[in-house]
Write a structure and sequence with these properties.
about 140 residues, mainly beta, Lipocalin, 2 helices, globular
Amino acid sequence: MRSLSSPPLIALLLAVLLAPAARALGPVGDEIRSAWPVAESIRRDRDGARMIVLFSYRRIQTGYLTNKDSPKAFYYRATRAELEFDCRRHRSRVLRTVFFSDPSGLERVVHEQAGRGACMHDDGHAQKDSLLFIACHGNNAPR
């Protein structure tokens, strides 16, 4: 009998538990295999919103830790990002990111990073499958 800690069993369990919470958006650009916005994580406040999104990448990605004494590279296949959205100005930025060694985001955390990123304008904000639209106008979000 398999233990509950085996990766395939955990992946199946999480897929069942998160199924109503997240809907894959499919390929996003050249490198991102899929993006999973977690509807239950959406928090709105006046003209803004926050949401957690899981990203899975087609290939191994490389991140770099910038340290004067010894710069280091780390490798990842998935990320979980907390994003902040400015619904009025159609902008977003990353608040926190966790990097995972596997494409499902269930195995080893290889790096965590907190800090507000630069604001990025979202030209596709009116599309119903854009992250900004889901965070700011999605039907499942609590107000």
